[in-house]
Amino acid sequence: MTPPVEWLGLGDAARVLCVTRTRTPALVAALDRPGRELVWLEGAVGLAALAGHGRYDVALVIDHLEHVTARDGRLLLARLRDLHTHRVVAIVAPAQLAGWTHADWRALEFGADGEAGALRRYTYDIVAYNPPREWNTPTHWANPRNFDRFRW
After folding, report:
1. Residues 32, 146: contact at Cβ < 8 Å?
2. Which has the closest alpha carbon to 120: 5, 18, 6, 7?
3. Which of 37, 60, 105, 152 lies deepest, with the highest CB count within 10 Å?
């Protein structure tokens, strides 16, 4: 089942890494845009398949996590998140996803941000993960000019 194009959350990404069990014509049509480079990893993709791949704007994992062990799925998402992209979108069918809990997704810093029928979308985006906070600046606490004025 291919979700609606706008629901995939790819935006105007120029380089997309798509990890899927099978490349369907509907999925290809949904992802293919002028100026977009699509790199496909199909089948039982493990960490070894990611060797030699560089950075991408977005990684899309669809129809894959349901077919691998929960441990392998977590390792794959962590590798994508840490080395290959700053944004990961995982589309899963929760009814078919064995061994996963909400805590597993939160531990990987993925948030559930949408449902379409039997599918759920989890995303990780480094930009949204750690937003700048006003108090966490040199002006407020790590400012050498405040060292003599404030005692902790």
Report:
1. no
2. 7
3. 60
The token pair that represents 24 in the structure block: 């369907």
Determine the CATH number of domain 5-146. Answer: 3.40.50.150
Q: Which residue, 77, 46, 45, is CA-closest to 59?
A: 77
Rounded to whole angstroms, what are the CA distances from 42 to 49, 60, 67, 143? 10, 12, 12, 51
Q: How far apart are CA 63 and CA 112, in angstroms?
A: 16
Closest CA to 39 of 12, 60, 64: 60
Question: What is the distance, to the nearest Å, from the Cα of residue 1 to the centroid of all Cα atoms in its chain?
Answer: 20
Render each residue's pLDDT in the chain as its tens digit; 152 residues: 566 666 677 778 889 999 998 888 888 888 888 988 998 988 877 787 888 888 999 999 998 999 889 999 999 999 999 999 989 999 999 888 888 988 999 999 999 888 888 889 999 998 887 777 776 776 666 666 666 666 65
Domain boundary assignment for the chain: 5-146
